[in-house]
Each structure stands twice: as C-alpha cells, then as structure tokens.
Amino acid sequence: MFKRSTSSITNLKKLSVIIVSLAILASVFIGSFKSDNFVKRSDQAEGIGQFAQEMEKRWLEGDVEELYEKKSLICPEFISNDTKVHPSYFQCNPYYMQCFLRSLNKKSSGSRFQLEHTSFDENGNLIASFKDKKNKGPLSLKFKDTCSKIRLKPSVYSASPVEGEKYVWDNIGQSIDIDAHYVNNGEVLIWANKINLTLPDSPKHAPSTNLSHEQKKLYCAFKGGQLLQSRQFDAATFLPAKARNNFVYKFPYPWSKRKDAIDRLGKKNCSKIFSKECSSEEYEYHSTYGASWSGVYHSLGSFIESFDNKFLPLAKYKMSSKDFALDSPWHRLGVRGSDESDKEIHLYNGGGIRMPEKELRSAFRCVYYR
C-alpha cells in the first residue's frame, strides 16, 4: 500500500486515526436490547467495536489488495477502471468504500453485519447503514476524510516570487490544514447533489475544473473550510528559508535551492513537474507529481489552479501547468496569472508575463482553520 513519506502528513495521520476512531464509535447506534444480561451486552458492544475498527482500517488504508491495478475493482458507477490512478486515491474515499462494502455483502453472507444503504450527511461525510443480523438492530458508521490534508507549520512566510518584506505574513498561533491534492469531481458531486446543482458528467477521479470562482468558495464552505489562499499555497511550496528582519528569501522551485534547477532537469522530469514535455506520458490522477516540502502536490505543473489572494485579489491563478513547456516563465513558484489586465500583477510577479488568450479552467483546493 502507498504510504506518504512526508513527516507532516504522517503526524497528522496519527492524530486522524484517533479522531476517526472517536467519530466512528460516536456514530454507532445500537437497537434496543431486551436482555438485561451485562455479559451479553458486553459481547454485543465488543462485536460492534471490532467491526467499526475493521471498517476504519479499510477506510484509512484503501485498496490494499491493489484490485484497481489488477482491474478487479468492479463498480462502474463509482470507479472507472480504465485510467491511471495513484493508490492514495482510494484512501478515505467514499466511492471506494461503497464499492468495498457492496463486495463485502456478496462475499460474507454469514457476516453479522449486512450493508443496507449509504448516504452523505450535511458535511459530505459518508454514512453507511447496516443491519445487525445477530441482534436484529440497526448500525450506522460515519466516515470522515482525515487522509487528504497537511498541516502548515507555524512560521513566518512570504507570498509572491519577489524577495523582500512586502508580502510577509505568519501563521503563528493558527492551525491551518491544506488539501494535499486538488479537489476532484467525485467530491464536488456530493456537494452538487445536496444543492441540486447539475454538473457536466466528468470522471470522479479527475480534478474539478468546471466550477466558477464563487462555486469553489461555496464548495469549500460546505466542507467546513475556505478556498485556499495564494499565500498559503506559497508557504506550503516554497522551500523554507529563515526570515531575517522580515525579509524572506525565495527559491523558485520546490525540489532545489538552485536558481537554475529547472534547466538542470534535462528535457523533462515529470515527477518533479508534469509539463508540456510530458504529454506523451499517461497522466496519473491523484499523483505525487510536484511534491513540496510540506506534502502538498502539484506545486508546479499539472493543472492551472485558482486561489483567493488577499494581497492582490486579481492575482489568483497558478498558471504553471501541463499546458506550458519547461522554458515558460510561468514555471516558478509564487508567480500568478490574472484574467484582468493590470500593471499591479507585473509588480507582484516581478515582471510581465503574457497571459494565454483561451478561457481558463482551473483546479482548486480548500483550506481549513482548526
């Protein structure tokens, strides 16, 4: 099974297991028992607790048997089997979990717990309702996504690619969690169904690029967060540097402190930056392309991404993407594009860059304050 190596994610994952355990156990509803026998009640509770722990383990670990890779995960309404998808996609994934629970019903006819139906609560958490065949009562488990976020280390940071003190900020005393990957179509579909919003039919595993800027904000609010700030993305992707007298040094690439790091890649390095040169390779969704020090992926390359930007609201696009070749000036951390013409964007970027004329479709992420 795929394991993230980044320490910040590992630490958050350990905390998440405790939170998920409590969330699952707190959402167990046991039908009324006629017997007053304490031993019988203890046995019943132990059986439910064990089942909840097994389901929690599966939720956190995902497709450990690698059935997707073997093309043996057959749930066409939930998962497409004809696309390259990273194993981490199946961790804390409500569509995978529904597929797994259905297969459990078929394989375990003698199991004490039988899946009856699934639904989503007001925050988009998966609710799985079972029948406890032994005690003739209902059982409901709630599954919360605790796999997909990284926690931004409290520190002094600076936005934009320009060195200096103009865009310095800090998150001292704040707990800020950021989506490690793009929000995907499957996640957005859960929200859209709640508000009766019709969306184009799109692969669930692909990044969501069809929402307006305001719709992205509404989705993040539904998940208990906000649209990711440009400065927070910069903080999670710029290699850490010590701030001296409110001056933060910037390194333009997430994998090296060398100013010429992109020139030293050669013709391409799709794991570091999935650029136009990688078009001959099949794109892996929910991948680890463009990994940053913090555990955020797609620091550069992959899809155009949109943010809110408190320093300069019109500077809201990370243009670095698979649409541009490696020699494009967009392929630097902190550089932002805008769909408005304004000289301020040149000052923000430290120079003018010509925007493409085509309509922009952008991926996005959310940020959560704890």
Describe the structure concisely for a colleague.
By secondary structure, the protein is α+β, with helices and mostly antiparallel strands. The chain has seven helices and 13 strands.
Q: What do these coordinates show?
A:
There is one protein chain. The protein is α+β, with helices and mostly antiparallel strands. The chain is 25% helix and 14% strand. It is built from 7 helices and 13 strands. The protein has helices spanning 7-26, 38-61, 94-107, 185-194, 213-222, 230-237, 344-349; strands at residues 113-120, 126-132, 137-143, 149-152, 156-158, 168-170, 176-179, 226-227, 243-244, 247-248, 305-306, 317-318, 366-369. The strands form 5 sheets. It has a 4-stranded antiparallel sheet. The chain is elongated.
Keywords for this entry:
single chain; 370 residues; alpha+beta; paralog of FGE (formylglycine-generating enzyme); 2 domains; 4-stranded antiparallel sheet; elongated; disordered N terminus
Averaged pLDDT:
87
Tell me the number of structural domains.
2
Assign an overall shape.
Answer: elongated
The order of strands across the largest sheet is 4-7-13-8
Number of helices: 7
The proportion of residues forming helix, as a percent range, comes to: 10-25%
The CATH topology annotation of the largest domain reads as paralog of FGE (formylglycine-generating enzyme)
**Secondary-structure element order, as H and E?**
HHHEEEEEEEHHEHEEEEHE
Structural class: alpha+beta
Strand count, sense and closure of the main sheet? 4 strands, antiparallel
CATH superfamily of the largest domain: paralog of FGE (formylglycine-generating enzyme)
Q: Which CATH C-level class of the largest domain is it?
A: Alpha Beta
Determine Rg (CA atoms, Å): 23 Å
Assembly classification? single chain
Q: Examine the secondary-structure arrangement and name the CATH architecture of the largest domain.
A: Alpha-Beta Complex
